[in-house]
Every structure is written in structure tokens, then in C-alpha cells.
Amino acid sequence: MTITVHGTSTELSGKEVLVGKEAPAARITKLDGTQNVIGMIAPNTQLLISIPSLKTEVCSLGAKKFNDLVKQFKKLDTIMITTDDLDFVKEYVDKECIDCAEIVIDKDRNFAKKFGLLITEGKLKDRLARAVFVIDREGEVAYKELVPEIVDEVNYDACIEAIDKIVNAKKEGHAHSHENWMSV
Questions:
Q1: Closest listed residue to residue 61, CA positions, set 28, 19, 25, 92
Q2: CATH of the domain at 145
Q3: In a domain, 183, yes or no
Q4: Total structural domains in the chain?
Q5: Distance between CA 39 and CA 166 in Å, rounded?
Q6: Do the bridges between strand 2-5 and strand 141-146 make them parallel or antiparallel, or are there none, so unpaired?
Q7: pLDDT tens per residue, range 41-62
Q8: Is residue 176 part of a domain?
Q9: Which one of 21, 99, 120, 142 has the fewest CB atoms closer than 10 angstroms to its CB?
Q10: Residue 106 domain-assigned (yes or no)
């Protein structure tokens, strides 16, 4: 897979994650230094936001915008993943009042490799490509956007629409087929 960085074609490393397939489990580092796993089956729908660097204007604005947009969803875990250094990210979270999302560090590039987002060359080598993934509670990728040009923003409207659809979807469970059986 390739994206462009300021117009220059750039290779991404890792396995491509497809909509409709199971999301991989990826190890990340929380701001308190502990390790955690994201992706896969979880109690809530997950919004995983891959951020190249919070030190840039586009990334910083995107993080703040998503923090505001996700406030309406109670059953959503919003996780922003970056490769920025721990001290900078802690300071950023406090300064920008990021309170509806958790920002974590992809210290070992485990998330980058598992989700096919690791930039392999150029001045952004070892950073993450800009992308969003919505993973339903069963661990399936329900929505994905890999931004083709790293300086562009994600399609917030399409992402929020996908989250709304998944979080508020009524699953057809066993009871429905049981009722049909009863009426035969």
C-alpha cells in the first residue's frame, strides 16, 4: 500500500486491514506507561484514530475535532494512536483538554505493523499514516479510511455517520428467528 507525503509516493509496511474482516489485536503503551491491547472484540465499539504527529497543525486540529465529535456517543471507546514521545503527549492532553478520547503511544510500532500503517521511508519514516478504523463489538472492521495524502484530513462526516450506524444498530438476535419458528 502507498500514500503520498507532500505529493511524494511513500510505501506503507504491514498487513492491510480490510472492512468486513476481523481487526487485529495490537499492543500499545498508555500514558501511565502500562501496555494495553486494542482492536479485536471489546465491550464497546472502538474508534481507532492513527495520528502521524500531534506536533503538526493538521493532526492537532484533527485530535481536537474528533474529541468534540465523539462526545455524543456513550458506547464508544475512542483511541488516538501516535508515535510522538510520551512527555509531549501527556503535556498535549492536559493543554488541549482531550477528555473524550484516550491518546496512546505506538512505541514498538506494533499497531502500525498490524494495521498496515507504518511509513517506511522519507522524513516521516517510522511514523503512522493518517487513518481511522471503526471496530464493532464483535471485533470486525466496520469502517476504514486511509487518507491518501498525509497532509489531508479524514472525512469526519463519513466516519461519524459510520459510528452512529454501528453504535445505534439493533442486532437481530436469536429471538427473531425463534418468533418465526413459533408462528409456523
A1: 92
A2: 3.40.30.10
A3: no
A4: 1
A5: 16
A6: unpaired
A7: 899 999 999 999 999 888 899 9
A8: no
A9: 99
A10: yes
pTM reported for the whole predicted model: 0.90
Residue 89 C-alpha cell reads as: 503527549
Q: Cα separation of 89 and 104, whole Å?
A: 8
Range of the structural domain that residue 118 is part of: 2-170
Helix (H, G, I), strand (E, B) or coil at 150: coil
Catalytically annotated residues: 59
Q: In the chain, pLDDT over 90 holds for what percent of residues?
A: 79
Cβ–Cβ < 8 Å for 141, 24: no
Asked if residue 19 belongs to a domain, the reply is yes
What is the number of residues in the chain?
Answer: 184
All three cell numbers of 27, joined, read 499492543
Amino acid at 127: R
CA-CA distance, 105 to 53, in Å (whole number)?
A: 11
Amino acid at position 165, single letter? K
Q: Does residue 89 sit in helix, strand or coil?
A: helix
